[in-house]
Amino acid sequence: MAGATDAIRALVRTIPDFPRPGIQFRDISTLFLDRDGLAATVDALAATVTGPVDLVAAIEARGFAIGGALSVRLNAGLLLVRKDGKLPGATIAEDYALEYGRDRLAMHVDACAPGARVLIVDDLLATGGTALAAVRLVQRAGGKVVGARFVIDLPGLGGGRALDEAGIDVVSLLAYEGD
To answer: Which InterPro entries does this entry report, sorted A to Z (predicted)?
Structure first.
C-alpha cells in the first residue's frame, strides 16, 4: 500500500493560508480529477475494511465523492450526512464543534435501519467533531458504526484520538503532521 499512498499523496495539493492565515489546506479536488488516483484511493480504502458493511455514511461534501464510490465497491448503500437544513423530509441532527467554529449535521430519520453496519467516510480528519457527530447520528438511529475511513488525517489536531476513545476503528490513508 506504500506505493499507492505515495501516488495518492502526489495528487493532493497544499494551498497555504486557506481559509485563514497559517492554515495549510489539503485540497483533494486535484485527486478527484485524476481517474487513476481516485480509483487507487477507493481501492486503498476498501482494502482496509473487514467484515460486511450495510451503509457507507458519507459526510458532506467531499466525503460524498469518496463515499459513493466506496459504497459501490463494498456492495453497500450510501447514507448522506449533510449540513442541517439541506435534506427534505424528517431528519435528526447533531451539533458539533469544528476547528473554526460550530455547525450541525443531519440525516434522514429513516436512513439507517436499527442494527445496520455503518462505515463513516470523509475526505479529511481534523479535530474529529464532524465525524463524531456522524457517529452519534448513526447510533441514535440504532445503527452500529463499524469504523471510520478518511483520505487525510491531521493527527496533531486529535481527531483520530477522539474517535479511538469513542471506540471507533479509524484508518486514514495519508497523514500530514503539524497542520
So the answer is: Ade_phspho_trans, Adenine_PRTase, PRTase-like, PRTase_dom
Record the pTM: 0.95
> Which position among 26, 60, 62, 136 bears the catalytic label?
62
How far CA 42 is from CA of 11, 59, 133, 156, 161, in Å, comes to 14, 16, 23, 25, 24
Q: Is 140 a catalytic residue?
A: no
Of 99, 104, 161, 165, which is the active-site residue? 99
- For the question of residue 62 being annotated catalytic, the response is yes
List, in order of start, the domains of the chain with CATH numbers. Answer: 51-175 (3.40.50.2020)
pLDDT tens per residue across span 18-45: 988 988 999 999 999 999 999 999 999 9
End-to-end C-alpha distance for the chain, whole angstroms: 24
